[in-house]
Amino acid sequence: xxxxxxxxxxxxxxxxxxxxxxxxxxxxxxxxxxxxxxxxxxxxxxxxxxxxxxxxxxxxxxxxxxxxxxxxxxxxx
Length: 77
Description:
Layout: E1 10-13, E2 20-23, H1 35-46, H2 60-73
């Protein structure tokens, strides 16, 4: 199978404002359109508006209790 390469740069939607931007070395904020959109996205991660789904992580107290239980039971299985 042959793949044809075009000279047209890749165009993507800014994750923050959905504006079309070129994905190339001339855009230091890629995939974002601007520094503002990049900082807004970072702020959303910082205040936990953006999250990766999954089970919550164990905190230290839960881990200590699990290890103590394993010691009483003769080890982890």
